[in-house]
Amino acid sequence: MEVVNALGRRKAAIARVFVSEGTGKIVINKRELDNYFPSTILQYVVKQPLNKLEVAEKYDIKINLNGGGYKGQAEAARLGIARALVKINPEDKAALRAEGFMTRDPRVVERKKPGQPKARKRFQFSKR
Questions:
Q1: Which of 19, 98, 120, 121 is most buried, judged by most C-beta within 10 A?
Q2: What pairs with residue 32 in β-bridges?
Q3: Which positions ≥6 away from 109 have C-beta within 8 Å?
Q4: What CATH number is given for 4-99 in this structure?
Q5: CA distance 6 to 19
Q6: 31-89: per-residue pLDDT in tens?
Q7: DSSP class of residue 67?
Q8: What distance, in Å, lies between the first and last C-alpha atoms of the chain?
Q9: Domain extent listing, the chain
Q10: CA-CA distance, 17 to 8, in Å (whole number)?
Q11: What is the enclosing helix (H) or strand (E) of 65?
Q12: If you write DSSP's letter for every residue of 11-47 in order, what string do you get?
C-alpha cells in the first residue's frame, strides 16, 4: 500500500495527513502524539476514527499541523485521518459519517468590524 494523503481543517487549523501501513505510530510535526498533545482528551479526539474502525494498530500516520489552537488542531487532524481512511476503504464512510467524523465544522471566527471593538460588541453609547 502506498501513502494516502488527506486534508483536514477546523477553525484556523490545517492538518495534512499521510497514512501508510505500519504499527500504529502517530507523528505530528516530527513529534510523537503524546508529546505534541499532552492532554489525553485531545489524543483521544485524534484517534477517534481509528478506534471506531478498530484499525489503530494497522496504520502509521504522519501529520503536518499548522495554524489555530490545540483543540482546532486536534479536530483538524481527526477530519484528515477520517478522510484518508475513506480513501483507503470507501465502505467505511457510512460508519465514520454516523459518528460525525466526515463533516467539516464550518464555524470560524467572525471578522472584526470597523467602528466596533470586536465582531459584534459595540462601544459604549453615550447620550450626552
A1: 19
A2: 27
A3: 11, 12, 119
A4: 3.30.230.10
A5: 8
A6: 999 999 999 999 999 999 999 999 988 999 999 999 999 999 999 999 999 999 999 99
A7: S
A8: 73
A9: 4-99
A10: 8
A11: strand 59-66
A12: TTEEEEEEEEESSS-EEETTEEHHHH--SHHHHHHHH
